[in-house]
Amino acid sequence: MNRQPPLNQTPSDSANSQNRRRLVLAEQELRLMSALVLLIGLGLFLALPFVLSIGSVVFLPLVTALLLTILLSPLADRLARFGLPNVLASLGALTVFLGILLLSLALIIQPALALFDTLPAITERVADRFADLRDEFAWLAIANEEIAKIMGDTGAREVVLATPSILEEIAFATPSVVLEVLIMFLMAFFMIEARVRLRRHLLFDRASFGSSVKAARVMREVQDRVAAYIITVGLINAGIGLIVALGAWALGVDAPIMWGGLAATLNFIPYIGPLAMTVLLALFGIGTADTLWLGLIPAAAYIALHTVEANVVTPSILGARFTMSPVMILIALSYFTWIWGVPGALLSVPILLTLTALFDHIGRPNVVGFVFGEPLFKSDVFERGLEDEQAGPAQG
Prior knowledge:
This protein is 82% helix and 0% strand.
């Protein structure tokens, strides 16, 4: 038996009411699917560190090789334009990077080995400086003992477990590191060599012209942004290293080239790297200078240089295109350092930049707005996809 609309309701009102009900059901279904996607993404974010950490022998070389491919593909393309075969162009780009890396390590390691013989004397002198400071603030230790007596602290005996020395840890870790480095460079070579086939696959194996245009746009944006960031930051850090080396030479610090190389390398690690460089300069200055305040001059000069570089030079050169939230940088730094240690800290910002470039095209999830009833992804993402779909017939 057919249901008749009320007498005061026209057929158009009935159709509008049905359309509104469909829209409400579609919105509820979309919100449910968005909630599932958000929960799955959160679960992957929490579970991924354990997977990546356990399989670091595989995943760390893979991620590093992907970033090297993004960085070195433009150089390989430029070499290929000179008439070199694709294999030789890929090998040449990788050889250039390896040469720069080995030269940088030689500038740091060779003076460090020469300075290693003076390390016991420097350590003893630093201990003497801190002993003098401890004598000056001996009244704090006396006050602490009196407070401990009042609180009834009996001074429990501490148990110290023996741990492997630094040399033993290096000896155990060397075979694994060598294997991971070899796997990384092999992966990078094959990925760079396969870049032409990958581009052809992304462009011509899509179902529509709009998706091909979008794939090309995403690939070009990720490659340009990551490569430009790494090259620009590398040049800035090289300038920082040169200034630090000249400053160390002017102040009479031993091995100025080593200090410049350390400054350039550690500056790739946001926040933590400059802090570690400041501590190293302070300890070395205290251990070699005649007085405590003279020993702090190199560290103070580096702090002033880093302040100017981080707040004036780098923002003015990189501009708004590479601006990232400091909170996101710290999250990425702690996240990937927890997973892979120092290599993860070096890779954290390029990985974050790559993900940012991808989300700029596929849409960034509106997590905070989703809690208050807004869509998880903004509608302009879908409108952009419709424009790409309509661009095909217009240009055809």
